[in-house]
Amino acid sequence: MNNLTDPNYLKSFLKRSGLKPRHYLGQNFLVDESVLAKIVTTAQLKKSDTVLEVGPGIGTLTVELLKRAGKVIAVEKDERMMQVLRGTFGGSAAGIGERLALSGRTTPPNDDTRSADDQRLTVIHQDILKFNLGQYIQGPYKVVANIPYYLTSHLIRYFLGQKNKPRLLVLMVQKEVGERVVAKPGKLSILGISVQAFADAEIVQRRSISPSPRRGILPPAHPRHWIRRVDGDGFGNEQLPFIVPKTSFWPQPEVDSVIIKITPKEKYPEIADHKLFFSIVKQAFAGKRKQIKNTIRNSEALKAAGIDPKARPQDLSIEDWIKLYQAIRL
């Protein structure tokens, strides 16, 4: 068991360290072992993987990542948490039994004579949005993190905008935000478009269950993670989103969470000018509830794209936005 997920141990640990969670930094610590396991299994880590963790906090997720990945780079903004991480990982990683290296540097050391085992973990004190990714990672990597809610949209755009994009992002986010990321036409937002235009995105499911005549009866295991609304997977099975209740954290946030899985892909190479594309999207969403003809005052472009002038921005598909972009760009 990861002791850091035990609420009593966590509170005692923080008290001994002289720490209190900072609300403005979104510091809600995960105290649910099953959720922790779900995050790690979703990332499908191998010993050859390099993982970038954002906001490791006291190291709850970091411990599990180190058990499975070959290298972990953790970026922490809070200096107080840096001190805790040094205490947690300075000798051995909570029972892992391997010496680990920590760094408070903002640039890589020029003369690194540490052993291979010592280099499995690097902790960097920095704001992730100011992080120079290329200084630390040149090859493939994955992003796995339980991130502060306020950071979600900025963080996703940061990584999808990198030249060296992650192979995979597994993030725990506010449920409402997760739903916006994977939304379909009718509920699409700027966030959903900015993700789905450059990646495949999904909310992690608990599992599929085959159709049953006794619909409405859910398996008893971990009922707090079920949600009554289900979706099909196209094969006659039902998909059950894995909901992370607010009781899975201490202190408790005001909302539930979900785990999202984002796989960056070159989906639409026709979007050659990203700046123009998103300027069109933002212009249209300036009047979200308005008909698109009232914000995109280019009737010829709307006609060329085959878009109903009375449609609302959230009703358009990604393909519709690309057609509109192409029509305006001509």
From TrEMBL:
Keyword annotations from UniProtKB, A to Z: Cytoplasm, Methyltransferase, RNA-binding, rRNA processing, S-adenosyl-L-methionine, Transferase
Reactions the enzyme catalyzes: adenosine(1518)/adenosine(1519) in 16S rRNA + 4 S-adenosyl-L-methionine = N(6)-dimethyladenosine(1518)/N(6)-dimethyladenosine(1519) in 16S rRNA + 4 S-adenosyl-L-homocysteine + 4 H(+)
An example molecular function term from Gene Ontology annotations: 16S rRNA (adenine(1518)-N(6)/adenine(1519)-N(6))-dimethyltransferase activity
SMART domains: rADc (SM00650)
Keyword Translocase: no
InterPro entries (UniProt xref): KsgA/Erm, rRNA_Ade_diMease-like_C, rRNA_Ade_Mease_Trfase_CS, rRNA_Ade_methylase_Trfase_N, rRNA_adenine_dimethylase, SAM-dependent_MTases_sf
SUPFAM superfamilies: S-adenosyl-L-methionine-dependent methyltransferases
Keyword flag DNA damage: no
Superkingdom to which the source organism belongs: Bacteria
EC number: 2.1.1.182
Domain Ribosomal RNA adenine methylase transferase N-terminal: residue ranges: 35-266
GO cellular component, as recorded: cytosol
Entry's localization field: Cytoplasm
Residues given in the record as S-adenosyl-L-methionine binding sites: N28, L30, G55, E76, D127, N146
PANTHER family assigned to the protein according to its UniProt record, in alphabetical order: DIMETHYLADENOSINE TRANSFERASE, DIMETHYLADENOSINE TRANSFERASE-RELATED
Protein function: Specifically dimethylates two adjacent adenosines (A1518 and A1519) in the loop of a conserved hairpin near the 3'-end of 16S rRNA in the 30S particle. May play a critical role in biogenesis of 30S subunits.
Family label: Belongs to the class I-like SAM-binding methyltransferase superfamily. rRNA adenine N(6)-methyltransferase family. RsmA subfamily.
Entry protein name: Ribosomal RNA small subunit methyltransferase A
